[in-house]
């Protein structure tokens, strides 16, 4: 990673995305913060206009992505590092009773969104012979649990896309990596439980989950490896987790 790289982070308004923005800024990068929630972006940028560029963008909308990235000021291009972080889980019931609209939200955000942004950024990286794409997956992409079939499938797709992407750019000098977090305390569960704070908090009861900053530390470390080194994938758990649904709740 260069001394003053330009980093694009999707889903930058909260959670892991916001933590990645802060971590890259701390290392001297300039960060393009992309998200749908403009109020959150304004709050994130306040007082840091020289180092953070807010880009309202819905990764699910291919034309929106294309127009937003095509309109970047010249001083914010080219993009050196892309962190494909935007993602969500919606619904928690079995397929036979689940809401198909939730399937669409997950597929459109977690899979199509990653492809839409990568499809705009990768050509320039390949042409320049440098760049780094870091996809945020999940341990759920490595296993399946009841009520999570579609979400797990979307994150498994991220893993397959990441591997294929690495093969597609082989020989170009572009690096492709993936980070798979386990339980991280963000708005993730709140979204999944439709705003039910009690249900969302119960997910983390009795244990200390990962913090968004823990994942951001891993992401910036990966981006900071020498140009000849690719950290292909990293699985990150809190100490009291050993898989989906496999947790030790040791605190009363």
Automatic annotation (TrEMBL):
Gene3D superfamilies: NAD(P)-binding Rossmann-like Domain (3.40.50.720). InterPro entries: KR_dom (IPR057326), NAD(P)-bd_dom_sf (IPR036291), Sc_DH/Rdtase_CS (IPR020904), SDR_fam (IPR002347). GO terms for molecular function: oxidoreductase activity, acting on the CH-OH group of donors, NAD or NADP as acceptor. Keywords: Oxidoreductase. SMART domains: PKS_KR (SM00822). Pfam families: adh_short. Residues 5-218 form the Ketoreductase domain. The keyword Oxidoreductase applies. The keyword Oxidoreductase applies. Belongs to the short-chain dehydrogenases/reductases (SDR) family. This is Ketoreductase domain-containing protein. It comes from Blastococcus mobilis. The lineage of its organism: Bacteria, Bacillati, Actinomycetota, Actinomycetes, Geodermatophilales.
